[in-house]
Amino acid sequence: MNGYLFTASVSRSLLREAAASRRPAAHRPQTWNACLSSIVCSDNADEAKKLFEASLHASPEGEDPFETQINKLVAAQFVEQLLMEKDSAPIDWPQIAKQAQLDLESTPADDFEQGYWVDVNAFRRPCANLEALRQALPEDIRSGLNWAEEKQFFFLLSVLSPPPPPRPQAEEADEPGAGAPDAAPEPDEAASGAAGGIFDTQADFPEVADKESAVLIRARNSAVAAWLWRKYAANAKFARNQIRIDPWCGVMGVEPTK
């Protein structure tokens, strides 16, 4: 069974009947944009995509029904190894799901100490060990991170695709209307914001950046998770790619072990 990390930016609109029955005091707007992620386990990518898309279109029980338009969807297959501070092991998704649930039940949500806010691409200097890594971080960064070995978290590391090369200026200048401030957007540019207002998917939701691969890591904080990945991938194809780290987002297609 393979694991895939799916992320989608969506525009959602209340169905006409639900919108008509809304009380004026209701806080949720009739249209809104959102970004959703999940790990999906399946034998192949096509089946995993269908399962994720079905979850996007489903209205949660007890909530007003809504219609979902998918603006952008990206997926990346997980590396088969779970990276840890002392070793690595093949990923056992049912066991991972069980451990993740135990973590959620026993650990108060605290993004600060786990370090999802840290710019892991800003600290790429090679470090021989964890203590060297800790000392290499600025004081205001390391003081906000968990360094207790017995306190571990799951991190989702995305290996990002390289950005497209910049277009030659001469090519841009030759295009009709290039540089005109009042030029109307192309139809496909406006389509992604049809339900909730035009927006730049990449700027509004950086989570939907194109990805080459996904990695599951268990470590004490995100700086350590990034360090483990760079050690593991030192001579690999994507060693120099930018990375992104996100928290555990749930898993579909697998039942936790008892």
Notable features of this structure?
258 residues, alpha+beta, 2 domains, five-stranded mixed β-sheet, four-stranded mixed β-sheet, 10 helices, 9 strands, globular
3D structure, described in words:
The chain has 258 residues and is an alpha+beta fold. The chain has two domains: 2-77, no CATH class; 81-163 and 204-252, no CATH class. It has helices spanning 16-20, 45-57, 93-106, 111-114, 130-136, 139-142, 169-174, 187-191, 201-204, 222-232; strands at 2-14, 31-42, 66-77, 81-84, 88-90, 153-160, 211-219, 243-247, 251-252. Strands 5-4-7-6-8 form a five-stranded mixed sheet, covered by helices on one side. Strands 3-1-2-9 form a four-stranded mixed sheet. Strand 4 and strand 5 form a beta hairpin. It is globular, with a radius of gyration of 21 Å. The two termini are 19 Å apart. Residues 178-198 have low confidence and may be disordered.
Number of helices: 10
Number of E strands = 9
Helix share of residues? 25-40%
N/C terminus separation? 19 Å
Low-confidence stretches: 178-198
The overall number of domains is: 2
Provide the β-strand percentage band: 25-35%
Mean pLDDT: 85
Topology, element by element:
Elements: E1 2-14, H1 16-20, E2 31-42, H2 45-57, E3 66-77, E4 81-84, E5 88-90, H3 93-106, H4 111-114, H5 130-136, H6 139-142, E6 153-160, H7 169-174, H8 187-191, H9 201-204, E7 211-219, H10 222-232, E8 243-247, E9 251-252
Quick structural overview:
The protein is about 30% helix and about 25% strand.
